[in-house]
Each structure stands twice: as structure tokens, then as C-alpha cells.
Design a protein that fits this description.
The chain is α/β, with parallel strands linked by helices. About 30% of the residues lie in helices and about 25% in strands. The strands form 6 sheets. Strands 3, 4, 5, 6, 7, 8, 9, 10, 14 and 15 form a 10-stranded mixed beta sheet that branches. An 8-stranded mixed beta sheet has the order 24-25-23-22-17-18-19-26, sandwiched between helices. α11 packs antiparallel against α12 and α17 packs across α19. It binds zinc ion. Zinc ion (ZN) binds next to loops.
Amino acid sequence: MNRSWSAGFLEGLRPEQPLTVSEWADRFRKLSSKASAEPGPWRTSRTPYLREPMDCLSSESPVQRVVMMFAAQTGKTEAGSNWLGYVIDHAPGPMLCVQPTIEMAKRLSKQRLESMITDTPCLAAKIAPARSRDSGNTMFSKEFSGGIMLMAGANSATGLRSAPCRYLFADEVDAFPDDVDGEGSPLALAERRTTTFARRKILITSTPTVKDFSTIEAEYLRSDQRRYFVPCPSCGEMQWLKWGQLKWKEANPETVLYECERCKERWPERHKPQLLADGQWRATAPAGNGRTAGFHLSGLYSPLGWCSWGQLVDDFLRAKGDAPALKAFVNTRLAETWEEDYSAKVNADGLMAKRLAYEPGTCPDGVVLLTAGVDVQDNRLAVSVWGWGEGETAWLIWHQELMGDPTQTEVWGQLDQVLASEWSTASGKTLKVRQMAIDSGGHCTHEVYRYVRDRVAQGVVAIKGSSKRNSPAVGKGSKVDVNWRGKVIKRGVTLYMLGTDTIKTTLFGRLRHNEAAGSLNFGMAADSEYFQQLTSERQALRYHRGFPIREWVKKAGDRNEALDCAVYGYAAMLVFSRKMNKATMWGQLKAEMEGEKKTKLGSRQKSQPAASSFVSSW
Ligand SMILES: [Zn+2]
């Protein structure tokens, strides 16, 4: 009694006497039967690899930022919880916990935090139950002596703009949005809260996602890149465990063994507890300023009884050949990024081989809307007419180069014929181009504006590609015509800025996946030259202020008008859809098209020449 009183007294005098997070957890943390498969006192020895990342979060450690790129079922969630408990009980201060969404922040508070508080007596004593009024304890904030813990979602900037915080816990950062409420990266926004604290601590955790787009991978690559090295039971060589070293007999996960990289001896998984206990983290990259410690851990380290090597092999065998399942395996089990190789699957020959049989200038079943994309070159206009249907499924209807100098009127007259043409559908109806987007970004801006100005009512708009990254596919649209007084003319030209990279990524994704809804389809209007142009660009990796960026770049010397026309045709469809109710748009267009036959029956013979005869005149 006397002893515990004096211990408490001394603690009051020295609130931050040396104690690491793992020591705190081993001494105080209890796992409940509700939240844990292994209830009872926490034991760091069960997951020895968690000791070092946790202890970097201790007050005495000089490390400020801890990056954990961990597989699922390795205990990273509990490591984060232990830190929360340590802060509340031992090193109080203001803390911000950011989850991908507000919903997940709620779940962290309700399921993880509250059960830990209830089950861990020293925490229960410091935080009043959420039920009591004025307890300072709500779903999104927990007050305790000397500090406060705020829960926020990365999808809302409001919660990230809180007061300065000494501690930041950013959980599952790869599920954070790129941009929150137009204020940029939510992680950067949250991290700015900590800059006033010299002894700040930041924990960033996640399983990774797509290569070059993964926040956790970028953070890990900027760290000292620690790996958990374990000694071979046969030769003692220290090595970190790699998926490629697992060996099993054909389709039989139970036969799995790990092959030592040095002595080639194969060992069974039962050695794992000893391996983990004898293991150590080693940096594989220079430490930089020593303030960021990065840890990578795959599911191969999962303790016995959690996720076995046999289970991993079984998961892998099931996922093989199924890209989304394999991606999930690579991300969550191996904690590695998934490489999306666009160029490997989208090539000109492959697309040519998959052409459908419909003739140029005719609309196959499913087309209910036509748009056109026009690319302006110095001696010609390149034009694609695209057909659209349910779910943004697309068909290339027609693609031509209209030869002529755009500073002269002749070539624009040819473009008028595209607008005036009636294109026949498979069911014997006709459609006209209802929206046309013309590139005004080249040398002929004034000529483009002049053409657009007189054809606003026919759905012709001017567009310009934006070099800004992550721009929306189509911007808001601004009036660019002014009168001689400099005032905006209401019925003048509207210019739309396009996020061309955004659109290209969308279109290539659709080319690659080729599901029925939202697919891109080509008929005889596309020849091999067309496909060469369509696939003339590649995504290349570039670094901007240390952040990886993917950009679309053209192969030197290649022409890419077909791709530009596809981008503009897609943009035209998006511009058109703004005038419609998105939920009912395709049904409405279909009804309009079918109704058209009744009203125009008989008159169709007398109307403009059919598209096919017009096409053959080029
Ligand atoms: Zn060995």
C-alpha cells in the first residue's frame, strides 16, 4: 500500500521517466476476448518484430517519423493501439488520429480504442466513460490529463485542420484520398499540425496499393528501409524472408518450405518462433537525417497460428490468373505494391485483332449518342466520331483527316459536313453528332473560336488540354469571348479545360479491361495506322519534389492524333452529359432515338445525304 502510494507520487513528479512503448504494453496492456483472438496480457515476445517500431515511438527515441508498410495479420494495428495507450497513460499530449474516412475513425474510436480503455485498468482510470455527460469523452475526442486524442477522417479537411498536435497517427494511408476538399494531400495537411513540436512523433501505417501511386511505399522509400533479418537454422546466415524463397510441391500448400538463400537448405515453418526471436531490423538504405525509421514486413513473418506459409501459398494458388485477386494477395499478404502495366496489355496489334465487323460511318446496336473530337494540326483537322451507350460504352464510328489549312475556310466547310451528316444505326434509324469538342490549344486558336462561335447551338465547344496533374477530366468551362469593351459575351464561345492525363488514364484502363459496360470498341473505321496513333503514348515515371508522378509521354516521332481525338470525343460526351440527368441519361437518349423514327418516318429520304455516301466522298 505504502509502496504503491510512493510509486504513484514519484510518477507524478516525473511523468516521463524512461519507459518504452513495448515495456508499457508488456506491463499494462490487456487484450479483450471481444477484440482479440488471443485475449489476455499483451506480450511483445509473440511478435518480436513489433518491438523496434513501437520503441521508436517512445519519448526517449530520437526518431520522429515511423513508417510501417506491413502485411495484414502481422499485428500492426495492435502496435498502433499500444502507442495510443502509452500516450494516454505515460506521455500525454495532444494527438490526432487520422483514418481514411470519418466512418473508419468512428470504428477506431468505438471498437478499438474504447475496448482497449475498458480492458486496460490504468487507461480506464484516466478516461471517463463516453456515457457520462461533460466527461470530455466523445466519439471523436477523448480528453485525459495532459492531453487530448482527436479522431478524424482523411476525407474531410475540417478534422485535419485541428489545433497543433504533438502526435499524429495516420492509419492505412494508401486508402486516403489524393486531395481533400481542394486542400491537397490529407497526410501533408495533418502533418502540418505537428510542426510546432520539437519532440513530435508521427506514425504512418498501411498495406500498400499500386506501384508508384502508393503513399506508404513512397514514405518507405524515403526512409532508411529496414527489413527484419532472421538467421538460417542451418548456416546462420542473416536474411530477410522473401516470397520467392518459399518452395512447395505442385498445388500442395502443405509441402511448403523456406529455402535459405545461402546454403539452399530448406526449413519448415515450425522454426518461425525461434527465427522471430533471434531476428533484428537492419536498415537497407542510408539513414538520411535519422528522423524517419521505415519498416517493411510481409505476411511470411506472421506468428504461428495467425497466417501460415501454407495459407499464403493457398491464397496465391487461388488468386493466380485473376488480376484483382492477385493484386489483393500482393498488397495485403506480401505488403508489396502492385505493378499496373498498361503498355503490356494495350498494343496496336492486339486491338487490331479484336476489331468488330461494323462498317465505318455506321452505328452498331447500343449507340444512342454521337460526339466528335477534333484535333487541329497546321495542315489538317483530324476528326473522330464516337458512339456512346449505356454505361459509357463507346464505339468508334468514323475517323478521318480533313486536309486543308485551318487558317483558311475550306477545311472548316468539310467539318460542317460532319456536323450535318446523319449516321445510320443498326436498327435503321439515324443519329447526328450532338456535341463536338475542338482543340483550341494549337496555333489556330482564333480560327477555332470563330468556327465555334457560330455553332454554339449545334453543340460545338472549344477545349484545351491542361498540363496540371490530377485535374478533373473536364473543367467548369469559361466564357472566352469579350466585346470591344472587354465585357464577356453571354452567348459566346465556352472554353473547357481538359485533364488530358486523367482522361487518358481512364480510356487506357477501359481498353485494358475490356468489360462489356464502359468498353471501347472499334470497327472497320480503325486501321493499323489508327491503332499505332492510339497507342503512341506511354505512362512514364518522373519525380517532382521527391514525389513519383506518372505522366503520359509520346514516343519520339510518333503521331498521336487518334488518341487526342478519342480524348476530345470522350470530353464531348462528358460535356453533353452535364445537360442531362446522369441517372436517366442513357434511357432517355434511347427513347429519343426510338421516337425519332416515328416523327421522321418518310422524311428521312429527303434529308441530308446518309453518312455512308458522305464518307465515300472523301
Ligand atoms: Zn542457410
